[in-house]
Amino acid sequence: MTANHKDQVLAALRACGVREEELGGDLTSRTPLTGDSLLSVPRASREDVAEAIEAADSAFKQWRDVPAPVRGNVVKRWGELLTEHKRDLAILVQAEAGKSMSEAEGEVQEMIDICDFAVGQSRMLYGKTMPSERPGHRLMETWHPIGVVGVISAFNFPVAVYSWNTAIALVCGNTVVWKPSEMCVLSALGAHSLLARAVSDCDAPADIHRLVLADRTAGEAIVDDPRVALVSATGSTRMGKEIAPRVAQRFGRYLLELGGNNAAIVTPSADLDLALRGIVFAAAGTAGQRCTTLRRLLVHNSIADSLVPRIADAYGTLTIGDPRDESVLVGPLVNETSFNAMQQALQDAEAQGGEILCGGKRVLADEFPNAFYVQPAIVKMPAQTEVVQAETFAPILYVMTYENFDEAIEMHNAVPQGLSSAIFTQDQSEAERFLASSGSDCGIANVNIGTSGAEIGGAFGGEKETGGGRESGSDAWKAYMRRATNTINYSGELPLAQGVKFL
Ligand code: NAD
């Protein structure tokens, strides 16, 4: 099985255009499916990172002057190649992130979608024209590229989040240096090689995108380099807290996409069949390893006894195992550290008054002694204690009840993170109150949909300890550009603003 898997991964890498000389080294990729090592890649040193930034900085000086719709051609070609190699890249994503094939292909589809979006955006980098207060003057804003964008990404979406940043950054006229998760270096090589082919097919400068494969030290080198105009970092809140002050110290820009602690409120009027499906996918899908995973369920007292046992029953039907079997819905945790963190959280929850209603145990340990498959857990909590306040990156759903709607909103917002949120209700007034300024304080607020599975058309990101950044669709492109305000005087006079007289 393992030898076949390695062969399959190698074939997928080759199909994506990865060359032999890009493999071999001391940074080894391990698959969470079995815990076995797959292939190794050379580890980038700090000097390699500096060289990549230098090359991307120099390519920027050419790329910024290429018309934006022409820059869009590279991203268009990348989207075509991603479409052609969707399965190949999904095989790499599945091997390293442990997702089902449907979710791994969904991740690549997200890349294709953002390419489409970015190509359109390349013709819509609009600036405003405002009425000037002075006669014979024109006042307007123009948008310009900023330079090298350093992209640091997490293991759980090894390629999609990178593509959100890269597709938009490139059409905006920036160049990109990418430091992917050290756990997903093969997926990174595959995605990067397809972009390299698109760049070459379009005769664009080769160094508009560079890849550095290493652990966090390479991330730190990007963070500290003054030639990196924007650091776009996705990962834990711990990582964001380390990065933000270092970038701010050198007056660089940062865009942070950090941890979530997402909740759903279920009100008495909710369609419980629909809520059930939304909750189970959001809480147990991807084995709880999405930033938008549902971690807290706030259920009205009157329906808790009917809804919660149904969720537990549905959990009992979930197929857990190696997701290369297409009937499997829940794959492994990424590694033993993640498993231990889950066990610790469950112990802490019990110590803080919680009751484990189902799940939490390791399964398939005999078959996969080096991989960590777990039953998704549901834990009834008396309150949002310390353990509920933290993001444990594993499938634990904490269930709490509420009595009135205001209390539900208060509980909803009473955590440090602010990424995604949902309400299940048929009451329009409750839905509107949830979406109002005094409702959910998150970057994403949904009605009758779970917390996970966002579309690329909307801006993606969250508030508070989630970092405040926005990526992907809507006007998120503005974070990758600088704005200039221009005043043009065609009057032949020199009237000063605010009626000031001088000379
Ligand atoms: P992580 O924080 O351990 O690592 C993320 C990336 O940051 C890796 O590439 C890592 O090498 C790098 N890194 C870590 N510390 C660094 C430092 N001090 N300086 C520079 N780089 C550093 O996260 P992970 O375990 O890979 O991913 C899971 C986390 O990511 C979860 O908290 C999840 O919620 C979060 N996440 C957030 C989003 C979002 O959009 N909000 C999306 C995906 C994942």
Automatic annotation (TrEMBL):
<dbReference type="InterPro" id="IPR044638">
    <property type="entry name" value="ALDH7A1-like"/>
</dbReference>
<dbReference type="GO" id="GO:0004029">
    <property type="term" value="F:aldehyde dehydrogenase (NAD+) activity"/>
</dbReference>
<comment type="similarity">
    <text>Belongs to the aldehyde dehydrogenase family.</text>
</comment>
<protein>
    <recommendedName>
        <fullName>aldehyde dehydrogenase (NAD(+))</fullName>
        <ecNumber>1.2.1.3</ecNumber>
    </recommendedName>
</protein>
<dbReference type="InterPro" id="IPR016162">
    <property type="entry name" value="Ald_DH_N"/>
</dbReference>
<feature type="active site">
    <location>
        <position position="257"/>
    </location>
</feature>
<dbReference type="InterPro" id="IPR016161">
    <property type="entry name" value="Ald_DH/histidinol_DH"/>
</dbReference>
<comment type="subunit">
    <text>Homotetramer.</text>
</comment>
<keyword id="KW-0560">Oxidoreductase</keyword>
<keyword id="KW-0520">NAD</keyword>
<feature type="domain" description="Aldehyde dehydrogenase">
    <location>
        <begin position="27"/>
        <end position="483"/>
    </location>
</feature>
<dbReference type="InterPro" id="IPR029510">
    <property type="entry name" value="Ald_DH_CS_GLU"/>
</dbReference>
<dbReference type="Pfam" id="PF00171">
    <property type="entry name" value="Aldedh"/>
</dbReference>
<dbReference type="InterPro" id="IPR016163">
    <property type="entry name" value="Ald_DH_C"/>
</dbReference>
<dbReference type="InterPro" id="IPR015590">
    <property type="entry name" value="Aldehyde_DH_dom"/>
</dbReference>
